[in-house]
Write a structure and sequence with these properties.
This protein is α+β, with helices and mostly antiparallel strands. The chain has 10 helices and 10 strands. β2 and β3 form a beta hairpin. The longest helix is centred in the first third of the chain and has 24 residues.
Length: about 325
């Protein structure tokens, strides 16, 4: 059963200072002569981080977990990143990833991870345009990511979900959203109809990033140069890495992304990929609602409810996600 009494929030640990993180980096990389800290620096719920500059002019990034679970996630991601780097170098893939260069033990357990900083800056999704430029590069890079052998993820212990598993897990999420009575009925019915259409759920699972956002796609000029933030990676539905683009990129840019993506996939990006991406982009608002409820955050919860209401109005007269 679920307790009706709100639990007390867990105590928040004070973030490590940039100086402490720099010291950890020096311990992780023998001979590293740190001369300055730099952007990015700060802390989120899971990790303290800062950029560093060494005496040779090279840039680094040090990340230290804020909890045991965050430490386990960083260790898992580091193993994956090493495997990805090997594939990228061998197959000359059109993007790079963070490459762990050293580790420093933390007094409370776990390890800080130090990597060379990646080139590029976060993509501005809203300014993407159609044609052969950055949008096409993004599509090609996502296709290359999804063509990586799924065994790579299996070998480092990441979760593996079949198409049927993906559908079952999504159904369970939507059932939880429905139980809150805060998701408009028109959306729940719309999502259920897409879930029930068996044509949507006939696809081959692939390696996926799992949590792509603009700040995790680094670009230079008209090229994608790197992906970051692989802590949610798994083998599953490739549509999950396209859903955020359908929700935020201009329509002509989406067309170029999907065209380049299809050219880069052996299977051509078929199997109702776009329909599932559309479904996932809408369900993401429900996930934001659940995040607000779980964390007892009234601001997030209210924001999510408002966005869900706006979406319900927008799709009231729109075609089904999966048309007959």
């Amino acid at each position: 059963c679920v307790s009706q009494t709100p639990s007390s929030p867990a105590p928040q640990r004070i973030p490590r200072s940039a100086i402490v993180l720099a010291a950890l980096a020096a311990a992780a990389i023998p001979g590293l002569d740190v001369v300055a800290t730099r952007h990015p620096r700060g802390a989120d719920d899971d990790v303290d981080f800062t950029g560093l500059l060494d005496a040779a002019g090279d840039s680094w990034l040090v990340r230290a977990p804020r909890s045991a679970s965050a430490g386990a996630a960083l260790e898992s991601e580091s193993a994956l990143l090493r495997a990805l780097a090997t594939v990228i170098d061998r197959e000359h893939l059109p993007f790079d990833v963070m490459r762990p260069a050293g580790f420093a033990d933390l007094p409370e357990g776990g390890r800080a991870v130090v990597s060379r900083a990646l080139a590029g800056h976060s993509v501005d999704v809203f300014s993407l345009t159609g044609g052969p430029g950055l949008a096409a590069s993004l599509g090609m890079s996502l296709a290359a990511l999804h063509e990586i052998e799924a065994t790579l993820a299996e070998d480092v212990g990441l979760p593996v979900y079949s198409a049927a598993d993906c559908r079952t897990r999504l159904q369970a999420e939507i059932d939880q959203m429905a139980q809150t009575s805060r998701v408009p009925l028109v959306l729940l019915k719309r999502w259920e109809r897409a879930l029930e259409d068996v044509r949507c759920w006939r696809f081959r699972s692939t390696f996926v990033h799992g949590d792509l956002q603009a700040e995790r796609v680094l670009v230079e000029g008209a090229d994608v140069v790197a992906f970051t933030g692989f802590t949610a990676s798994h083998v599953g539905d490739p549509a999950i890495d396209l859903a955020w683009l359908l929700a935020s990129a201009p329509e002509d840019a989406v067309e170029s992304i999907l065209e380049a993506y299809a050219l880069g996939r052996v299977e051509g990006g078929s199997g109702m990929l776009v329909e599932r991406a559309q479904l996932l982009s809408e369900v993401a608002l429900g996930r934001w609602l659940m995040h607000g409820i779980r964390h007892q955050d009234p601001v997030v919860t209210a924001e999510a409810e408002e966005m869900l209401a706006d979406l319900a109005d927008a799709v009231a007269e729109a075609p089904e996600i999966v048309e007959a």
